[in-house]
Automatic annotation (TrEMBL):
This is Protein saal1-like. InterPro entries: ARM-type_fold, Synovial_Prolif_Regulator. The keyword 4Fe-4S does not apply. Residues 1-20 are annotated as: Disordered. The lineage of its organism: Eukaryota, Metazoa, Chordata, Craniata, Vertebrata. Keywords: Nucleus. It comes from Notothenia coriiceps.
Length: 246
């Protein structure tokens, strides 16, 4: 996917009063959140226009503000307001353009917090493009990004209204299995291993057929020709992860 993130809807006119500017019953400012999201879009767009190849560096002030949004999204009112502002589409566009691992991690983390509430999780989960991108991020080279992606997916499959939708996507995206197994057999990051283990355990608990297919999967011809070493067995990967967690 290669597209610019869309700007949030117009914040409205005349909301100078503090009560009107507050998000729900919180003290968080609509104007500040709107400005931060808009600045994020401009930052990523300008960087991609200047240098389409080099890795982007996140300025300290920008990182601090985005981490504040990450924390704010744990509030139900803020999560709902972010959805109203089309934050899912904005963050998806940023992730697609991002060449900064820390920025990608933060954006996925914000989405993970938004997904903690049933209503916003439902809206987020219905975004097909986002679903596809998140599953591909399990193969990212950045461990913190994989950790936040795993946390988000675990949150979604743990909610009954959307778990079947995510299970269907996971069944169809064959790279999910190989990417999760690769993490289990190669990572030394205990937080990541624990979260991936929780995700796999939840998937197997929800879908016995998926569990059977992942355990008994055989190396196909494409894997043999493309990258024979990438074929991984469930049992050996689980054992390796267990060794790291001891």
């Amino acid at each position: 996917m290669d597209r610019n993130p869309s700007p949030p809807p117009n914040a409205g006119d005349g909301e100078e009063d503090g009560d009107l500017d507050a998000i729900g019953d919180t003290v968080y400012s609509k104007h500040w959140l709107f400005s931060t999201l808009t600045r994020l879009i401009h930052m990523v767009t300008e960087q991609s226009e200047v240098d389409s190849e080099g890795q982007m560096q996140l300025l300290d002030d920008d990182e601090e503000d985005l981490c504040r949004v990450w924390d704010m999204a744990m509030d139900k009112d803020v999560a709902g307001f972010l959805q109203e502002f089309k934050a899912t589409d904005i963050l998806l566009g940023v992730i697609a353009k991002s060449r900064c691992p820390r920025l990608t991690e933060i954006c996925v983390g914000i989405l993970g917090n938004i997904a903690c509430f049933p209503g916003t999780c439902l809206t987020l989960s219905q975004n097909e493009d986002l679903g596809a991108v998140l599953l591909l991020l399990l193969g990212d080279a950045d461990p913190p990004t994989i950790l936040e992606t795993s946390r988000l997916l675990l949150t979604c499959v743990s909610q009954k209204d959307v778990c079947s939708l995510w299970l269907q996507r996971i069944r169809q995206q064959t790279s999910v299995r190989s990417n999760l197994l690769f993490v289990m057999c190669s990572s030394t990051n205990t937080d990541l291993l624990e979260k991936v283990g929780e995700l796999v355990d939840k998937l197997f608990d929800l879908d016995e057929e998926l569990m059977t297919s992942w355990i008994t999967a055989q190396q196909n011809e494409e894997e043999k020709e493309g990258d024979g070493e990438r074929h991984l067995e469930m049992a050996s990967c689980l054992l390796e992860a267990a060794k790291q967690l001891r």
